[in-house]
Amino acid sequence: MEQGKIVALEDRIPKLKEQRRRKANKRLILLLLLFFTMIVAVAYTQSPLSRVKQILVKGNDNFYTAAELAKVSGITTSTNIWKVNTGEAASTLDRLPEIKQASVYIKWPNTILIQVQVHKRIAYLKKDSVYYPILENGKVLEDRKLNILPANSPILYDFKEGPVLDEMVTGLKNLPEEILNSISEIRYSPDKTDKSHISLFMNDGFEVSATLDSFSDKMVHYPSIISQLDPNKKGIIDLEVGSFFKAYSSGSGGKTN
After folding, report:
1. Which domain holds residue 145?
2. In this structure, is residue 173 part of a structural domain?
3. pTM recorded for the entire structure
4. Which of 139, 184, 244, 249 could form a disulfide with 238 if both were Cys (CB 3.0 to 4.6 A apart)?
C-alpha cells in the first residue's frame, strides 16, 4: 500500500509543476499588462490627445462670449483634461456679476462644457447720456454701459445702488412681462409726504404716480384701469391711494376702479 502511495505522488509531481508554471505565466502576463497600461497612460497624459479639444458654453444669453467665459474659467485648449478642476473653474465663473450660477463638466474624451445661468437684465439706469444695465439682483453694471437707448426695458432716472433701487427691482420682477414691457421710464421722485414716490411714463402715453411699497401690487391692474379710459385723453393715473385719473388737458379728475 505504501509503495502504491509513493508511485501516485510521483505521478502528480509533473502536474503540480505544470500548474505552478501556468500560474507564474499568468502573473507575468498580468504584470506586463499593468506595465504597458502605465506606459500608455503616461504617454497619453503627456500627448496632445489628453488636452482639451473643445470648450462648449450654454446658457450665457449673449451676455458674455464663449471665449470670455472660457478665459475666466482658466481652461484653454492647452489644458490637460486630467488637470481640469471643475469646481474651481465654476467658482471663478460665479464671481462674474451677471452669472447667477455656473457649472463645469468634463465630457470625455476631451470636451469641456460650461453651463451658466445668468441674472436677467430688468431695466437700465440713465446717468448723463449713458445707459447702465440693472440686473434682477439690483446690481448696476458700470462696465456694460450703452450709448444708445435700449429697447423693451424700463429706463430708470435718479436711482442709485442701494435699498431704494433694490425695492424698485423687486417690484419690477413681480410684474407680468406684458406690463413690464409697457413701461418706458421710471423716475424716483420722493417728496415730503412720500419718500418712496415714483413716476412711471408708459409707452401708451399715460403717466402713473405710485409709491414703491405698493407699486407692483397695483400695477397688475393697469390693463383694467386703462381699458376704462379714453385712449385719446392722456393724463396721470394716481395709484398711491386708491386709483384716480387726472387728464393733462382738462385738469379734472375722475375715480377709476
Report:
1. 121-255
2. yes
3. 0.72
4. 244
